[in-house]
Specification:
Blueprint: E1 6-7, E2 10-11, H1 12-24, E3 31-32, E4 36-41, E5 44-49, E6 52-54, E7 57-59, E8 66-70, H2 85-107, E9 112-123, E10 139-150, H3 155-168, H4 170-177
């Protein structure tokens, strides 16, 4: 009977097995994630996240999907039924950094006692509101601050890991380098 080594809540042998499998079959690294969003009322929408594609096949291993609420705060004409889209984007960056940090720490034998991120971004709504196009519509800067505590790693190791996680984060990559976005519309008659 083999012992499963769990570090930071990560099954390390399973993680290393996944890495080996992808090295042997690179197509196993290919995913297509999906979300659908439906307007509810005012500035309130709901998003549903469920199955995804993995290596060209539909993966329906999730027992149930997720429903997220999105809205605006009252100052932006919303009813505060959920975070707004840019807040969800900041949270997505934090989620991505966290999973990257925790999994890579586990693979390196670093035991974490605490791990969190504070993320904030500056935005000017002039362009969004149609009041001028001399400012960009999105964030002008995003700042992330990591907080980490470990009893078996040096400060240098923890900082190097933070840099590695930034360099390999899919969400940061999309934010820092952009990605083509194609939008189509289907008008119901």
């Amino acid at each position: 009977m083999s012992t499963i080594t769990v570090s930071n809540g990560i099954d390390v042998p399973a993680l290393l097995g996944t890495i080996d499998a992808i090295n042997d079959q690179p197509e196993l690294a290919q995913f297509t994630f999906k979300a659908s969003t439906a307007w509810q009322s005012g500035t309130h929408s709901t998003a549903k996240i469920g199955s995804f594609q993995h290596a060209g096949a539909e993966d329906e291993s999730r027992l149930s999907g997720f429903t997220l609420q999105g809205d605006e705060p009252p100052v932006l004409l919303g009813k505060d039924s959920g975070p707004n889209a840019v807040e969800l984007l900041l949270a997505a960056l934090g989620f991505c950094y966290s999973v990257g940090y925790v999994a890579n720490a586990a693979a390196r034998g670093i035991e974490l006692e605490e791990m969190s991120y504070e993320i904030e971004g500056d935005i000017d709504l002039h362009a969004f509101l149609g009041l001028g196009n001399d400012v960009r519509a999105g964030f002008t800067e995003i700042r992330a601050k990591a907080h980490v505590k470990s009893s078996n790693a040096t400060e240098e190791q923890l900082k190097e890991l933070c840099t590695y996680v930034q360099d390999t984060s899919p969400v940061r990559d999309v934010l820092a380098n952009g990605v083509p976005v194609r939008t189509t519309i289907e008008v119901s008659g």
